[in-house]
Amino acid sequence: MYRKILVAVDGSSTSEEALVSAARLARALSARLRIMHVTDSPYDYPDVMYGHVPGDVEELHEAWHKAGQEVIDRAVAVALREGCAAEPRLVEGNGAHASEQVVEEARAWGADIIVVGASGRRGVKRLLLGSVAEGVARLARVPVLLVRAPTA
Question: Can you tell me the distance from the alpha carbon of 131 to that of 27, in angstroms, rounded to the nearest whole number?
Fold first, then answer.
């Protein structure tokens, strides 16, 4: 059924729920699991960033890359705790929305399903921040499993 499962993580509790679901599914199906995280890049915003942020753009780039690597490293540890080895994939932003990059990664890797956390944002927050999960569901050519964090 599903041989390649792609899960997108952002370090939030909702994405961890998606990761746990993806790892359990991969383990049950003996499927490959790829964990991806999309980092921003200051090079995507030269007109906005240049001259307006104290410090060096390269230092900012390195800091964002390091933070993204930490998200990936924690996610790989969670997958291992769930009994599933995972392939990490850190993708640097290229100016496209994160949802587009997730869908492109799924296409390029040949994923059979994408798993992503759905934050459940509503109203102005959703309008301003957008929804990666919604974008993935709209753009993907493969099934998408949306996982919500449990409510308290």
Answer: 28
CATH class of the domain at 4-148:
alpha beta
- The whole-angstrom separation of Cα 83 and Cα 56 is 41
In the chain, where the domains are located: 4-148
Report the alpha-carbon distance of residue 149 to residue 90 in Å, rounded: 23
User: Alpha-carbon distance 87 to 69, whole Å?
Assistant: 13
Residues 89, 93, 98, 103, Cα dihedral to 10°: -50
Q: How far apart are CA 133 and CA 144, in angstroms?
A: 9
Please provide the DSSP assignment of 48-97 as one string.
HHTTTSSS-HHHHHHHHHHHHHHHHHHHHHHHHHTT---EEEEEE--SS-
**Ranges under pLDDT 70 in the chain:** 41-55, 120-130, 151-152
> Measured between alpha carbons, how far is residue 67 from residues 29, 78, 140 in Å?
31, 17, 27
Instruction: Report pLDDT for 128.
Output: 40
CA–CA dist 82, 150 (Å, integer)? 18
Q: Which residue has 């359990």 as its token pair?
A: 24
- Give the per-residue pLDDT at 40: 76
